[in-house]
Amino acid sequence: MTAIIYQQPKSAMQSGKAKVDTWILEFEQSEKRRADPLMGWTGSGDTQAQVKLKFPTKEAALEYAQRQGIVARVHSTPRKTMKIQAYADNFR
Questions:
Q1: Which CATH architecture has domain 1-8+21-29+45-92?
Q2: pLDDT of residue 24
């Protein structure tokens, strides 16, 4: 089993920083998705792809993966930089 550990991104409807500090452990798909012939929905028989575990820190997620024998890759998020500018700068 392989998993990916990443920091939860903000949703498109979110302007604040709530729930952004959460780290998620998500398993990679081991089986290809296929379309259902009747309804057209996509799915697979892989039930591990449905599991999402949330942790308060990256270290906690890595520790859990090591205890359970899960090979995990960490996707770190780039640092956010703020561009401070005044409203009047839009009209120069």
A1: 2-Layer Sandwich (3.30)
A2: 94
